[in-house]
Amino acid sequence: MPVIKDAVCSLCGSLCDDITVTVEDNKITKIENACILGHSKFVGMFEHDRIETPMIRKDGELVSVSYEEAIEAAAKILVSSRRTLSYGWCSTSCEAISGAIQLAEETGSIIDSTANVCHGPSALAAQEKGSPSASLGEIKNRADVIVFWGCNPVHAHPRHMSRYSSFSKGFFTEKGRKARTMAVIDVRKTDTAKLADKYVEIEQGSDLLLVTALRSIVNGHEDVIPETVAGVPKAEIIELAETLKNAKFACIFFGMGVTQSRSKYKNGDAMSSLISDLNQHTKAVMIGMRGHYNVTGFGQVATWETGFPMAIDFAKGYPYYNPGETGANDLLVREEPDAAIIAAADAGAHFPQKAVRHLARIPVIQIDPYANPTTELADVVIPSAIVGIEAEGTAYRMDAISLHMKKLIDSKFKTDEEIVKDLTEKVRELKRGA
Amino acid sequence: MKIKANLISGRTADQGAHLEAKTHKGYFDACAYCELNSADLERLGASEGDNLKVATEFWEVVVFAKANEGNPDGLAFIPMGPWANAVLSPDTHGCGMPGFKGVPAEIEVTDEKPLDMKSLMKKYLED
Lengths: 434, 127
Ligand code: SF4
Hints:
The complex is a heterodimer. By secondary structure, chain A is of the alpha/beta class. Chain A has helices at residues 36-47, 67-80, 94-107, 120-129, 136-142, 153-156, 160-163, 207-218, 234-245, 256-259, 264-278, 295-306, 323-326, 328-333, 347-350, 353-361, 373-377, 416-433; strands spanning 3-7, 19-24, 27-32, 55-58, 61-64, 84-88, 110-113, 145-149, 181-186, 198-201, 228-229, 232-233, 249-254, 283-288, 312-313, 320-321, 339-343, 364-368, 380-383, 393-396, 402-405. In chain A, strands 5-4-19-18-17-6-7-15-16 form a 9-stranded mixed beta sheet. In chain A, strands 10-9-8-13-14 form a 5-stranded parallel beta sheet. Chain A has a 3-stranded antiparallel beta sheet with strand order 1-2-3, with helices on one face. In chain A, strand 20 and strand 21 (402-405) form a beta hairpin. Chain A is globular and about 70 Å long. The relative contact order of chain A is 0.19. Chain B contains 5 helices and 6 strands, in the order E-H-H-E-H-E-E-E-H-E-H. A 6-stranded mixed beta sheet of chain B has the order 2-4-3-6-1-5. The model of chain B has no long low-confidence stretch (mean pLDDT 97). At the A-B interface, helix 1, helix 4, helix 6, helix 10 and helix 13 of A face strand 1, helix 1, helix 4 and helix 5 of B. Iron/sulfur cluster is lined by residues 9, 11-12, 14-16, 34-35, 37-38, 157-160 of chain A.
């Protein structure tokens, strides 16, 4: 009975690479080390609703067709569209992402990743101010002060704290949690906050104020701070600033509490400045808590290939980027796309109503292993193999370290990489014929 | 009784465990609820499991009531997913990111029942 060690969990940005999987008769019968999310991912293909065959919507109903028919129907939509949005590509391999970028270029589409509703503002902030970072290995071995700001790893990245941060034991951090200070900054007392040494509750939407106050203190101007900032008493802010300054190695992990709240990318921008200020006193870094397991990979591949990490518009024949204009949600809210490909992500579930309303009106091609809200809106549905389980490939962890995902079992489904290649070939064929 | 609240969305472990099982009832149970602290629920006259109508300037949605003492007064939380997104802000303020946190909402008890995932998506197609 084959036991595969060190399989990579392809669910969240922690990309745990220590999963042990037992395979019998092409079925996974035992999963060790995964958290509840990871476990659900591995048992998923036996228990969840797979999209069993390619489908095309006829008279309002999705009906089964062959891969060839679905690819042809999808390619026809792409060729006749004047403004296609290609969105997602974050629960798949870098190899598939590279193909998707090529397809976007071929069709003059806009391609955007799930960062649009996640850490897109962090990418903007990194462009403006930089993003002083480290590998999760360094955090594990060196960080004695860990801050979780606007993120809740107990729920979103359940093994993060034990493998890489608060609870992990490393070379210079052999006492683990006992010798680390853990602070949580959030608008509500989350399960992560309950584990912290310091919980700082801030008023929702006022992250920028708190970062600015911390910066003032770190830079020796605590006299200018009013008695409370962002709902936090001055004494508490001073204490937090001192903890950060006196750290040997501090890491601020930040999440969507920071990127989705008021001031959006300016929060990340200010955070980067705070890290730079702290580096006058000690070593400090920041890392975004990335959600989809390979959203970091999308940013990497897109940046090598186009110069930009997301929201790339190929309409002019060369890559153009301006997320407030070329981001998936802005496009949909402006009712601009006349067709969309949603792949390895679920815009139906994760976009606000105005954007979903426009998706409901235009032809949508879905590429995904599972039925989800996007399927309800889709006109062509192309099922794919699950990367990391049924297909191999490369993914980037949240700290931009690349890992190879193994293929664990065989599948009847085409991989995203193959689907994208077939689509691109079909599009070229149709264009030649036109 | 209606209360005004500041609405945010976010991840939960249950929501995450159903990311690839969104047609299952488990996903509905994991996402179609709104958390308030028990003082706010009391002000509403609601108990856990009651149906709440959450309305914003963008749309309205019916979800179950849930208590969470970690929420400060007036802070409402709906796990990320189609129910939350029915009422959150599509405005990206020119940086690409919609307003998924910090949307003013009015919440009241209702007799209407939360729609399951497919029925909710159908509303978009009918729109
Ligand atoms: S923490 Fe993330 S990567 Fe690790 S097992 Fe859980 S879901 Fe998978």
